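Lab notebook: predicted structure, single chain.

Context: the supervisor wants predicted structures on file for every construct in the current expression panel, including those that have not yet been purified. This is the next one on the list. No modifications to the sequence; it matches the entry in the shared construct table.
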Amino acid sequence: MATVTQNRTRHGRRVVLDNHLPVDHRLHRVYRGGAALMGAFLVVFGILGLIGRIGFFSTSGSMVMGLGSNGALSLVSVLVGGLLLAGAVIGGNTASTVNIVVALAFLAVGFASLAVLDTRFNLFAFHLQNVFFSFVTGLLLMTFGMYGRVSGSLPHDNPYWRSRHPHPHERPAESSAKPLKS
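Prediction complete. Output recorded below exactly as produced.
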């Protein structure tokens, strides 16, 4: 299990998780799989856009894999996809954190693109399907990144639950009493 350390600050206690979970922990598969899946899609999308020689800041762009694209979006897609793939290779809490940060960026880009759709400020040549893709991708990456970290019913052996309940008296006691018979 991951160990938890506490650092006292003048504003109260702060919980810091170790940077790794056990090598065979099942959460690694979710973090890594989500990052690898989305990263691979973005890299392929970006490469196809770059191969198509679309204008770099063309606001009308061209369709690539059913989404509007231009050179700038293709380049950003390759970079973000590479970041997700790097997170998948590193794994652990890093993959989870990368998923969450990139998810927030996708959601923010979705809202910003919705605001500039069909204007001259549409620098990435987004169409409505790009906005939907940004929202869906953001929500999927958020799910992949937060899986096992955020929940109301985490098991008590989960390192994230333990980090929120560092004192033994806050943990539920394992009852040795026999259940009542009715």
